[in-house]
From TrEMBL:
This is Large ribosomal subunit protein bL33. It comes from the Bacteria. Keywords: Ribonucleoprotein, Ribosomal protein. Gene3D superfamilies: Ribosomal protein L33. The gene is rpmG. GO terms for molecular function: structural constituent of ribosome. The lineage of its organism: Bacteria, Pseudomonadati, Elusimicrobiota, Elusimicrobia, Elusimicrobiales. Belongs to the bacterial ribosomal protein bL33 family.
Length: 52
């Protein structure tokens, strides 16, 4: 059986660093966009979903 899971990365929109990894279903109903802490920027920034 094919996996329905997909690993995605949460990428800082400011420095493009991949800070978080997350597993989600394959269905893409929406794009994730979250405010997360970026170690590289040293502050909370917007993170977008991208390829892991
Ligand atoms: Zn950053």
């Amino acid at each position: 059986m094919a996996s329905e899971r997909l690993t995605i990365a949460l990428i800082c929109t400011e420095c493009k660093n991949k800070n978080y990894y997350q597993v989600r279903g394959k269905k893409k109903e929406y794009k994730l966009e979250l405010n997360k802490f970026c170690k590289k920027c040293g502050k909370s920034t917007k993170h977008k979903e991208g390829k892991a």
